[in-house]
User: Fold this.
Amino acid sequence: MTSAPSPLILVTGAAGKVGRAFITRLLANDAFAHWRVRGLCHQRPLPAHERVESVFGAIQDHTAVLRALVDVTHVLHLATSKETPEDAMDVSVKGLFWLLEGCRTSPTFRQFILIGGDASVGHFHYPHPVPVVETQPHSAYPGCYALSKVLEETMLQQYHVQYDLNGCCLRAPWILEKDDLRAHLDFGPDPFGAPRWCDVVGPEAAAEHLRRGAIPVLLDQAGDGLLRNFVHVDDLVSAICAAIDEPRARQQLINVCMDEPVDYARLGDHLARTRGCPLVPIRAHYHSTWLDNSKARFLLRWRPKYDLQRLADAAWSYERAADDPRHIWYPG
Assistant:
């Protein structure tokens, strides 16, 4: 009697932050001991491993996508484009379309997992007087990235409707690892993400804050600590693993985030107390947002391990190796 072939998961954006962490976790997890991984890579290959292969091609290339999907049972779609208008529609719309079309006609396909983003519901650009749940209407903020997140979620949902595709979207906020949070709270010329603090306070003040090791404390329009949603990459990977072949995840949109958003005022107090960081209050036009993860806890039986304190302590304790410099792979 011939045994069934081992599951084969295609990971797009496999060489990125989430892709690398997911593949490492899957290969180390006994529950996935017989799984194989194929990465659809555009620039960077995956590390050599007997259960891992890299295929090269652009996600908007129909032929490359069909080649990558041969014998695939699962797809984890991570590839995205930030504020690069010349790539946004090719990657986020055309690329996703070819993937979904290939999956719905594949004899081996079983499940599609899309990693979405809270940019699709406005992030902290619009007022949210109550926690943001999965039924919140789409509300992209200006720019092509947020629009692409809306289009991705909508396209996957329509494939559920049109073809009864077995898919799910895990909607994540800002994904952090290593010293990302420390690099975010940096008055230097190249902070991680936004706001760009040196532009907010001006170059002379920024240079002085940088010299003192000061930390920006983002305040909302009322002067309270701004609430902003994050998820550590390890927690997101745990949610992805929990969603794989989970019947309760079928055709669901699920928020995956920390139990509570990060409060910049509380974060500043913690860093002042534990690291002696001077604080610089900065009032901005952004709005506090609370992304609700109740559905993930209920359907996936998942709980994040990182809270504000652990997120901060991990970032400030992290020491980068000489061969692991910070690198900006995309703008925005």
